[in-house]
Amino acid sequence: MNVGELLAQTVPMARTLNLEFLETTSERAVVRLPDQPDFHNHVGGPHAGAMFTLAESASGAIVLAAFGDQLSRAVPLAVKAEIGYKKLAKGVVTATATLGRPASEVVAELDAGGRPEFPVTIAIQREDEAVTGEMTVVWTLRPHATA
């Protein structure tokens, strides 16, 4: 099972919005939100909450792809998120997430006993490739408690 399938299976909100995980690697994650009238806002585009969930899901996909091998010793958690809506979104929108720090640095900090934080940046685009929103999610790898 790939990361996108895992998220679609384990995150009910991703299933509710019918998110499509197009690419999930440790370098980038691409997730699409189909155009669905049930999730439209007052101007006929995707609701802001749906776009937030789309972008956050893309960030979670890249985090799992980059740090899935660390799950036995740490849990990834979103610490904070900031989103800016730049242009009117209509139709299908796609979120592309990238890590803001090299994964090797994050793992080295975890190896040294720290609780690393790292940003994931996400661009939300319409089908014409216009950027309609930008989001940054700061994630952490919280080490499991030891007995």
Strand order of the largest sheet: 1-2-4-5-6-3
How many domains make up the 3D coordinates? 1
Unreliable residue runs: none
Question: Structural class of the helix and strand makeup?
Answer: alpha+beta
* Name given to the CATH homologous superfamily: Hotdog Thioesterase
CATH class reads: Alpha Beta
Largest sheet: 6 strands, antiparallel
Fraction of helical residues: 25-40%
Architecture overview:
The protein is α+β, with helices and mostly antiparallel strands and 147 residues long. It has one domain (3-143): Roll (Thiol Ester Dehydrase, Chain A), CATH 3.10.129. Helices cover 29% and strands 35% of the residues. The protein has helices at 3-10, 12-16, 48-67, 103-111, and strands spanning 20-24, 29-33, 74-85, 93-99, 117-126, 131-143. β1 and β2 form a beta hairpin. The longest helix has 20 residues, at 48-67. It is elongated. It starts with a helix and ends with a strand. This is DUF4442 domain-containing protein. InterPro entries: DUF4442 (IPR027961), HotDog_dom_sf (IPR029069). It holds the Pfam family DUF4442.
